[in-house]
Amino acid sequence: MKAKLVRMTEDEMNMPALKEAGEILKQGGLVGFPTETVYGLGGNGLDPEASRKIYAAKGRPSDNPLIIHIADLEALPAIVKEIPEKARILAERCWPGPLTMIFPKADIVPYATTGGLDTVAVRLPSNRIAREMIRQAGGYVAAPSANVSGRPSPTMAEHVIEDLGDRIEMIIDGGQVEIGLESTIVDCTEETPMILRPGFLNQEKLEEILGQVELDPGLLHETAHVRPKAPGMRYKHYAPKGDLSIVEGPSEAVVAKIRELTEANIKEGRRVGVICTDETRRSYTDGTILSIGSRTEEETIARHLYEVLRDFDEIGVDVIFSESFRTPQMGMAIMNRLLKAAGHTVIQVEGE
Ligand code: AMP
Ligand code: MG
To answer: Does ligand 1 come within 6 angstroms of the Cβ of 230?
Structure first.
């Protein structure tokens, strides 16, 4: 099977193509589509067979639950047993947007979609192509990121074609995504809401709305014995083919260390990649040097992270050294993904 490729923008949506996508989804087929976070691999979230196809296409472990995407707030009550007060507040303030919330699931949501859990994760995306497609599909689209399990999430349709082009019916190309990191996942079913996966909406913003919000302790001590609450956060993720290390410390010391490591590795006959920013780009001379964005516009760093990791897979390098990106708003989300990609290999350097 070769996926049918259609292109459109949020301003100029191709309605016949979206109807066709909706039809494919209603029939139990799979469609790759853009959202503001990353590209999704959609299937009918209320059809266990479609969910099983999603797992098979991605090679995803079946105990890693899917997020159901809806197009309107009115669609929520049908798939959840109750809406906790804090979830209702967050839905009103942050939806449509890059926020996923956990609810006790209603009976019509199959266990094949929730990985056997009695809870269901729900998101209302802001991307208009996504929302129209969901409406055309009947309202409930289960969609993990549209990558093969273990590869970086797709931020462009080309990435979806690369990973799934011969495994699904259709791919909607809506251009490069806006955010580039997966949604923030919040569990509001407990007294104090908890962030299960960091994203664009950070703890500070959530606390402004809800008061105290906790961070899943499993996110901070991934190597220790505390297991993250979101099953997906326990899996090794986003591993590039090259061996990735993050170098952390004052900027000048980081540059000096990466230069030193690059030189030493090239001498040993290895192909080296460097992940830097526009601000430091000129400080490097050896290896394949890719700038991820600008430190003065941290959203550019988030948007290009997965793309840069994929680029290095394509270029083919043996080792990659990356600067660290603890930026003010999205630093936690960016570093969560980068640390996973690096298998938590961090080289600390100190200033003079
Ligand atoms: P992805 O679809 O690749 O963005 O991954 C979805 C993420 O949502 C994974 O980390 C899942 O473990 C998490 N998730 C989905 N449903 C639930 C749920 N009911 N409870 C906790 N985490 C969930
Ligand atoms: Mg994913």
So the answer is: yes
